[in-house]
């Protein structure tokens, strides 16, 4: 976080959770960045990043008291594909990364390099 800030960046997370759920997650995990609520995956859908969970996963989540309708406030059982964007101050997307495997995240060094290239321009 310090390096991102030093490079002129700001981290913002976007979640399909209801605002109270997003706030609770941010508070519980002591996050030092903003977590915005994208109820209904409106923003994620505009980027083409929404998928529907298969029935067997829905049953498993329900059995573990983690049913998406309770958390996200709709019956869609949809989630966004994890994605990372670096957006310039003018709104241009200068780096985009997404992977359906939520364990495959963009290396923070790549994000820092993208931020540093923006400040060098």
UniProtKB/TrEMBL annotation:
The lineage of its organism: Bacteria, Pseudomonadati, Pseudomonadota, Alphaproteobacteria, Hyphomicrobiales. Residues 2-94 form the Alkyl hydroperoxide reductase subunit C/ Thiol specific antioxidant domain. One of its GO terms (molecular function) is oxidoreductase activity. Signal peptide: none annotated. It comes from the Bacteria. It holds the Pfam family AhpC-TSA. Coiled coil: none annotated. This is AhpC/TSA family protein.
